[in-house]
Amino acid sequence: SAEPGLPRLTALSDAWLRYAESSVFRGGCIFAGAAVEFDGRPGKVRDRIREIVCEWVEGLANVVREGQAAGNIDPNADADQVAFELNALELGGNSGFQLFGGGPSLDRARAGIRDRLARLALGPAPRPPAKPARAAKTKRR
């Protein structure tokens, strides 16, 4: 339900990381785990997992394109590259969270995603904080 572009990418990534963090399935995301287990084993299971993962990554790329059309994502950004990076951060966060039984992996993934999305944003560059006004000098007596 989030607006197209950056708000939707943020919402999707946040939802995915919350899903991984919730430990709905032992071993984290069932598709991430199955992809690792079956990536080198040809067959119907691998083919189906590949379809599901491709659908997710292509969906992320399409959200980038929607944001470009809506004017809130840099039109020069490579949508497929952005989708790859977001998926890689999500999977890396999930993997570390599972391997280390928690820890900072999902927080690091969130930070990486925030940074990547910030670099996509269109609009004026944020202004640095205003410097405090200098107090008028008084003469010493």
Task: Give a verbal description of the structure.
With 141 residues, the chain is mainly alpha-helical. It has helices at 6-21, 30-38, 44-70, 79-99, 105-120. Helix 1 runs parallel beside helix 4 and helix 4 (79-99) packs antiparallel against helix 5. The longest helix is centred in the middle third of the chain and has 27 residues, at 44-70.
Features of this protein?
141 residues; mainly alpha; 5 helices; globular; disordered C terminus
Unreliable residue runs: 124-129, 131-141
First and last CA, distance: 67 Å
| Helical run tally | 5
Mean pLDDT: 82
Q: Helix-strand pattern, N to C?
A: HHHHH
Fraction of residues in H or I helices: 55-70%
Q: How many E-type strands?
A: 0
Shape: globular
Radius of gyration: 21 Å
| Coarse structural class | mainly alpha
Biggest sheet features:
none
Strand content: under 5%
